[in-house]
Design goal:
Length: 1023
């Protein structure tokens, strides 16, 4: 132990080494960002293609299919999904995790550019974007008041421009706004009377409303720019634009249309607590500090409020930074509380305040040093890194406890002076301390290198724990022995009654354990059989555990999805959503409801999302899950729409958040839809499935305009002209600009609303043929009513229908078994099935966890074999590993928790923790045997000597995790299962290891002694 020797001889040098880590940590702390999740790059790329006026079938055939064909040739694609909706097609490309997201996005852009000429000319250029966890929405601002919607939208736009300039602010989307727009509302009868077609008006506007640069002129030394100022300057000038002259009469725009200064047709809606509002959804830039960015936005909003008109309120109904800040604050409390509990445990066992202070210093020094590591690695303070520190609190004092306890024993029991006791005590225990710490570090290296998306998130967790325990090892070999050599004293005065009581209790525990151990060594096979029986019960406990991917937290926010039938208008959706939100607000635990309809790329005006915010945890006695179930029951009788209640997703990326997502894939959409319907009927009879739905949306009413090709050809009317004229008159299109001051507004041409209400109105429209004559559409087309799919989903270029459901009272694992059992009965053999969403991630993640667990066990064996120069002793030590499972599984059962991704990481954590007891026992047993003690006596004495440090370190670790297990903090429900599993596993493994490991050591002793004898005989022969 050269490091300890140097630290004892040169105390200032030791203090400065530790102080340097502290200084780095203190200066790094302000520079570390705060976020909810680690900033990871996930290789997901989305492609959005907008084709105005196209139905889902056209989008699939002419846009999505061609884009998928091109994109599918990119290397490294794991999955290719798409959705075809009215006017828009979206493709989601998932790449293998090793693919660089930026390069993947560029490859997709290149492939799209190569086929752009094969796509419809009328569609907009596809937009390619990579999915960025670090650039998700962080807060929303609602502007509400009694002003006209156009003015409110203008205020929202001005607010957006001011906020957009703030450091760290990324994109800002406006929901519920309606921009000012100049509409040319064409009168069908006037056009027919004046024998005009829509092309006549659009051509007139294009030719008579523009500024045209004409070049430059020079006169002498001066240069002049020549411009033709042809843009209209008022609405009256727009009305006076000449469309055509006919028979001596001049026909102007105002003669055939109403020119109206109004706002855009509403395609989105927002309301806060029943009051109409315009909402700004704010995203941060990737890598920016969420809490800091939100703070800047709130500060700027306070200034913006001062300039708002009277009666206009600006409110922040959604602010994820508040949850993050509260969560981080609560985790810091967990850290402090856990540290205090761990220190009190040390004081109880050592009954020496000097030794307790020396041990306690290991916590702040290791934690602050880890802050420096977090900064230099580019990590943030997030759920993963803070969870790592929370769980590590009890572990950080383990090394210092073992070292100080051994020094204390040398000082008091063997009567050595402080300097000698510090050196000898550290040297004697050093190998065991290194073995325990390296074992813990070894199990977290595989965690940091786990595959899959979950592995990306746990990367920072694994490395943070590994560095923290490494820092604690460094402190235990420098600061701890140095301080012990200077400040520890032999207690010579009269012991207090409390101290005597502590010592009597500990002595009684020591004596009882020694007696039990002697008895166990005499009935070794019986002990082994009992241990195997106990181990077998762990598998029974595991099978009884409910299993899920991610535990639901109690963050006080959830979402209600209200979807009206296909074809329902925005006004209908608005009325129903506001009615549902009003019912929800009657619950005393609900503080706010924010309704948003439409918006975004898909503009689903028949679907509303109600964000429900609850009062703080301190003001309610019910959990979020209980409130969700209550809302679900309250709305169960609403049959005008499909309503589902969902918790907020772990990552809000626009994908489905239902727990159950079972996909049916094939080419026949009718077959898929029929199979999905049968599955829904069967699932409704099962318990636990709620909010049942399918992704397929059929029955969207449509009017099919079917041209008669022969008649159109006879009358010289191109089919494209029919389509473009209908799109212009029915759907409306931007045909020009109107400039007023520094602002420009769209000029949109469309039929008046009374002239486009009925199917028969389409036949009364006219188009101009190639000869210049007018032809009525009813002479060229057949107009039929019909229904078409409102949504077409595809997966890997096959059509798919996904069965969706939330769960109530059953786990995801149970739900999977039920769905797969029913699928065997109701899904035809030709239809492929697979899991999506949480179920898919759970399968992939648990497989990765098993791989990491096996790798951790291998690493632990290799470290122990290297430490003890033995192939046998590591097996003796690692026998304690399986005994941790029974306590972990029983702990989860007793507390009613599930087996999820966090508990699986807790099991890996146990692999590093539970070897500590066996290492201390085996290490000191070998030391005593080297001193000449018989094996049985060495085992008993080693057990009695090491019992106190074993109990101290185990109790310190357990009590250090206690605040996390109690789940009193924001988001604590997600972290608690890991702590409960680790605590339960530590308790059972420690109890069983104290007896079983010495017994197995005794049984395997003949093999180790035989090998030693062979080595000695070989040495004698050689000499």
């Amino acid at each position: 132990m050269k490091l300890a020797e140097v630290s004892i001889k040169r105390p200032v040098f030791a203090a400065m080494m530790v102080a340097s880590l502290m200084v780095l940590g203190v200066f790094s702390y302000p520079k570390v960002g705060v976020d909810l999740f680690p900033n990871v790059d996930l290789p997901f790329v989305s492609v959005t293609a907008i084709y105005p006026g196209a139905d889902p079938q056209v989008i699939e055939d002419k846009v999505v299919d061609k884009l998928e064909e091109a994109i599918s040739t990119v290397n490294g694609i794991k999955a290719l999904r798409s959705v075809s909706l009215e006017n828009i097609g979206q493709i989601f490309v998932e790449f293998e995790l090793g693919v660089d997201p930026d390069r993947a996005a560029q490859d997709v852009r290149d492939k799209i550019a190569a086929v752009r000429r094969n796509l419809p000319k009328e569609m907009e250029d596809p937009v390619v974007a990579k999915f960025d966890v670090g650039a998700l929405p962080i807060l929303s601002i609602t502007l509400s008041g009694d002003l006209p919607i156009g003015r409110m939208t203008r205020l929202a736009t001005d607010t957006k421009e001011r906020l957009q300039k703030l450091e760290g602010v990324g994109g800002i989307n406006i929901v519920g706004g309606q921009e000012r727009e100049i509409q040319i509302q064409v009168k069908r009868r006037r056009m027919a009377a004046l024998r005009l077609a829509v092309d006549d008006i659009t051509r007139a506007l294009a030719l008579n409303n523009m500024d045209v640069p004409a070049g430059r002129m020079q006169r002498g030394s001066r240069e002049y720019t020549v411009k033709t100022k042809g843009e209209v300057r008022s609405l009256s000038e727009l009305r006076d634009i000449v469309v055509r002259k006919m028979m001596g009469r001049t026909i102007r725009v105002g003669d055939v249309a109403d020119v109206v200064d109004t706002v855009q047709e509403p395609r989105s809606h927002a309301s806060l607590n029943g009051k109409n509002a315009v909402t700004l959804v704010i995203r941060k830039k990737s890598g920016a500090n969420t809490v800091a960015v939100a703070g800047r936005v709130r500060a700027e909003l306070a200034q913006i409020r001062k300039g708002l008109p009277k009666g206009v309120a600006a409110i922040i109904p959604i602010d994820s930074s508040t949850y993050i800040a509260n969560s981080m604050h609560d985790v810091q409390f967990d850290l402090l509380f856990g540290a205090i509990l761990a220190v009190l445990i040390v004081l109880f066992f050592l009954a020496d305040w000097r030794a307790t202070i020396i041990v306690a210093l290991a916590i702040p020094t290791s934690v602050v040093a880890t802050v420096a590591f977090i900064h230099f690695m580019g990590f943030t303070f997030n759920n993963m890194t803070m969870l790592a520190l929370s769980l590590s609190i009890g572990i950080l004092v383990d090394d210092a406890i073992v070292v100080i306890e051994n020094i204390h024993r040398h000082l008091t029991e063997e009567g050595k002076p402080p300097l000698e006791a510090a050196y000898d005590g550290t040297a004697e225990i050093g190998l065991a301390v290194m073995a325990t710490t390296f074992s813990i570090m070894a199990v977290f290296v595989p965690v940091a290198t786990m595959e899959g998306i979950v592995g990306k998130f746990f990367y920072e967790f694994g490395l943070t724990v590994a560095f923290a325990v490494a820092a604690s090892l460094f402190v235990s070999f420098t600061l701890t022995p140095m301080l012990a050599s200077r400040f520890l004293r032999v207690h010579t005065g009269k012991a207090s009654t409390l101290r005597k009581g502590f010592l009597r209790v500990l002595d009684a525990i020591d004596s009882t354990y020694a007696a039990v151990l002697r008895r166990a060594l005499r009935v070794r096979w019986l002990v082994v059989l009992i241990a195997m029986g106990v181990l077998a019960t762990s598998f029974v406990a595991f099978s009884a555990l409910p299993k899920e991917f991610f535990p639901t937290d109690n963050r006080g926010q959830f979402r209600v999805i209200v979807e009206l039938p296909q074809g329902k208008t925005l006004a209908a959706a608005q009325a129903l959503c506001d009615e549902v939100a009003a019912k929800i607000r009657r619950l005393e635990v609900v503080s706010d409801t924010l309704v948003t309809i439409g918006g975004g790329a898909q503009e689903k005006v028949n679907e509303g999302r109600i964000q429900v915010n609850m009062v703080s945890r301190s003001r309610r006695r019910v959990t979020q899950k209980q409130v969700e179930e209550r809302v679900r029951r309250m709305l169960s009788q609403e049959h005008r729409a499909k309503i589902s209640v969902q918790p907020m997703g772990m990552i809000e990326g626009g994908q489905a958040q239902q727990a159950v997502q079972f996909m049916l894939r094939g080419q026949d959409l009718r077959q898929l839809s029929s199979a999905a319907s049968r599955m829904l009927v069967a699932l409704r009879k099962e318990k636990g499935f709620v909010d049942l739905d399918v992704s397929y949306r059929g029955g969207k009413p449509e009017i099919r305009v079917i041209p008669n090709r022969r008649r159109a050809a006879d009358r010289d009317v191109p089919l494209a002209l029919i389509g473009s004229s209908l799109r212009m008159l029915v759907g409306g299109e931007k045909v020009s600009d109107y400039k007023e001051g520094a602002e420009r507004y769209d000029v949109r041409l469309r039929l008046r609303e009374p002239d486009r209400r009925y199917r028969s109105d389409i036949g009364l429209l006219s188009v101009r043929n190639l000869r210049g004559g007018l032809v009525r559409l009813r002479d060229l087309v057949r107009i039929d009513p019909g229904e078409g799919p409102g949504r077409i989903d595809r997966h890997d270029r096959q059509r798919q229908v996904t069965i969706l459901a939330n769960l109530e009272g059953i786990s995801l694992g149970e739900a999977q078994g039920t769905v797969e059992r029913l699928a065997k009965k109701h899904v035809p053999k030709g239809v492929q099935t697979s899991w999506q969403g949480q179920a898919k991630m759970m399968g992939e993640s648990f497989a990765s966890v098993v791989s990491a667990l096996l790798l951790a066990v291998i690493f632990v064996y290799m470290i122990l074999a290297s430490q003890y120069n033995s192939f046998i002793h590591p097996f003796t030590i690692m026998l304690s590993l399986p005994f941790s499972f029974i306590g972990a599984f029983l702990g989860l059962l007793v507390t009613g928790m599930t087996f999820n991704i966090f508990t699986s990481i807790g099991l890996i954590l146990l692999m590093g923790l539970v070897t500590k007891t066996a290492i201390l026992l085996v290490d000191y047993t070998n030391t005593l045997r080297d001193r000449g003690l018989p094996v049985d006596e060495a085992l008993v004495r080693a057990g009695r000597t090491r019992l106190r440090p074993i109990l101290m370190t185990t109790a310190a670790t357990i009590f250090g995790m206690m605040p996390v297990a109690l789940a009193l903090s924001e988001g604590g429900e997600q972290r608690a299962p890991m702590a409960v599993a680790a605590m339960g596993g530590l308790i059972t493994s420690t109890i069983l290891t104290l007896v079983v490991v010495p017994v197995v050591y005794r049984m395997l002793d003949r093999f180790t002694m035989g090998r030693k004898q062979v080595v000695l005989d070989s040495s004698d022969t050689a000499s």
